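## Example record

The block below lists the input lines for one assembly entry, exactly as stored, with component labels intact.
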Amino acid sequence: MKRPLLSALASVLTATFHASAASTDHPPEAFSGGTTTVFNDGKDAYSLALGNVSRETRRQFVVGNSFFNENWIIAPASAQARDGLGPLFHARSCSTCHTKDGRGAPPKEGETMTGLLLRLSLPGQAPHGAPLPDPIYGGQLAVRALPGSQPEADVPIQWVKSIRTLPDGETIELRRPEFGPIVWHYGPPAAGLLLGPRLAPPIYGNGLLEAIPEATLRALTDPDDTNHDSISGRLNEVWSLEFQKTMPGRFGWKANQPSLRQQTADAFLGDIGITTSIHPQESLTALQQPTLGILPNGGTPELSDHILDRVVTYTQSLAVPARRQLDDPTVRLGEKLFTQVNCSACHLPELKTGSDHPLKELRDQPIRPYTDLLLHDMGEGLADLRPDFLATGTEWRTAPLWGIGLNAAVNGNTFFLHDGRARTFTEAILWHNGESTPSREAFEKLTKAERTALLAFLDSL
Amino acid sequence: MKPSLIFLLVCVSLAAASQAALTPQQKTSRAVVQHYATTVHAVYSDCLTSTTQLRESIRAFLAAPSPETLSTARQTWIKARQPYLQSEVFRYYAGPIDDADGPEPLLNSWPLDELYIDAGEGGDGGIIGNEKAYPVINAELIGQLNLTDGEKNISCGWHAIEFLLWGQDKSATGPGDRPFTDYTSAPFAVRRGHYLQACADLLITHFEDLLKQWAPGKLGNFRAIFEEGYDQSIERLLTGMIFLSGNELAGERLQVAWDTKEQEDEHSCFSDMTHQDIIFDALGLQNIYRGQYVRLDGTRLSGPSLRQLAELVQPDLVPGLDAKIDGTLAAARAIPVPFDQAILGGDDAPGRLAVMKTITTAEDQSALLRRFARALQIQIPEQPAGDVAG
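Predicted structure tokens for the full assembly:
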């Protein structure tokens, strides 16, 4: 524990910043989540309860937090509340991939995937428009299994690099992942298998996104580009298991999840192998059932509704950290350029939550999420060619940008986009094609100083 | 990156120059802060003394494993926890214990996944049973493996030692009963011994480091800067109290176990000593409020207290603060032992009522301390600056 004096002084000053930050003399843009905003720019910046949290919600948050971090173990075990891992799984806890409630990291070459997973499907559609699963491997590849069983596959990853030269001569190295040759442990998959890599996204702020009225989202859509700005914007319409009807998709890289409750239950099942009342059966295909379905489980369901409710409340009530450096002229210039090159057409700076979310803390909040939650065609370079309900193989949901500048502080990295290929904001921007091509080209034509300002703006979010 | 001596001298002389112009509130604050620093140093000194005794008892146990030497090691662990628990009120303001370089995650992370450390039902061998991946077990290795790939992958600290001494608690009435033969004839016995020894060694280095930062009269250590502040340092002192009572004690330590009724969610689940954790955390809070601390050797420290500052600034808050601070300690002492049985049953069961009373009193205490902070015109952040989850 070496601590030079300057670092001690710095920590005194930091503590002072924290204190003054809690006061109310901030410009309105600092409050990314309205009165739910928290003022923290350290490693816990994504892990805090809503700034306006009630005593009752905080009590539930604390319990949900505990289970979010919980390592699940093999059933049967004396720890009955947390046994039932697998038989196939991706990770042992939520926090393994969503580290500090933040973003996952893609694997290096030679590593088994952790913060990244692969969704699977075949051309065509399952009932309600869901992706069509592979008969052996289902809809998600499990790269881990209980001792004595085989994981579904070993997936080597290679990073393919290329160089992009900007108009002013600056060169940027880009990379994209290639998977394979995949070693399948339960026989060959069906012909035409589609792979959808998905990086574990950050969790904070999702309650506020859930609280945006459906009518607001519908009003933002422009499927036929009637305003001729080259940007369409479509709402995904997905099947709700809870309500047994089609609802707007809000969460996931292709907006394929209608609610945080379903998102959470899907993740417990697909990622950890934990059943809930929403998914009472293990995620095994008929062909896996005879061998893996007979293994002991951790109860029916393995996660009670009581605890599921707590984890859902937890994901709903993780706060968005405040914006910073608002008095820095470079940041202000970058903010202007962000609008000027029309990033803000999809990364919408301002929205308002509705009045009917179950958590009253989330209601009627002016928020600054920098997303429209809509699907946009991002071009071939980024496409996984795997459709998901209404989302085509080239469409992605606009990623929220609030809090993104703290990713390095929380997760020690800046891996962006659905497969974590981008290592910097610049790389992420350079992968924008399709509807976002004019904005990306406008960014490339900015001067170096202007580009730096735009990146400084992103860092202030 | 060494600060210039001139810079330091400027800091010190500025502080000295401003001394004369202090208001009565600032003068009392300064005295409270200085006594607090003395208390912190005394508490960490006691931690070093008691963990050194723990290491000795662990050495004696590993040199001659028997039911008796194991029992002595366990009793030493229980005693050693007492000063440490009283130090938890020094967290949450990014001080030496939990700033970016602070040892807190290595010291008291919980609840740990025992299968990450050792072989057992439902696991894959853990670090101890995985000789191929970890051929040599030492303090450096277990420090590196802490909190990798999951926030419950805890490899070291108090609760790792607790698990290695007691084992999983499968008894309704008593703690875990790991046999001493886990260190003689059981599989991986030697590696388990190395692991236990490494945990004890690591614990001691943390307290040695903390003592350096809080040592008196050391130009440039944390204490030197801390003692020069009054409002800022009072803010930290209060931040530690507010978050220990409202977030950690009422929330992580009590609410989770109360809600799930699960033994795995109690703080010291292997030794069944959770009641001690709650009581001594509450005592640590009272120590700072009343400006007192009873050392390991029985000597009593006492001096300018937060309570005196409250009497000066906002006397009408004092009766409420007295009631909540003493009330949390009294409520903690009233929780039936063992804690893992107290949380069971209906919400009107005596144990659950006692736990809920402690939760509510600790939350109230936290809210009242916030009100006190506002009276001092100090803004306490909504969330702690240090690690929330630990």
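Confidence is low (pLDDT under 50) at residues 1-5, 385-390 of chain B. Residues 142 and 345 of chain B are 38 Å apart (CA to CA).
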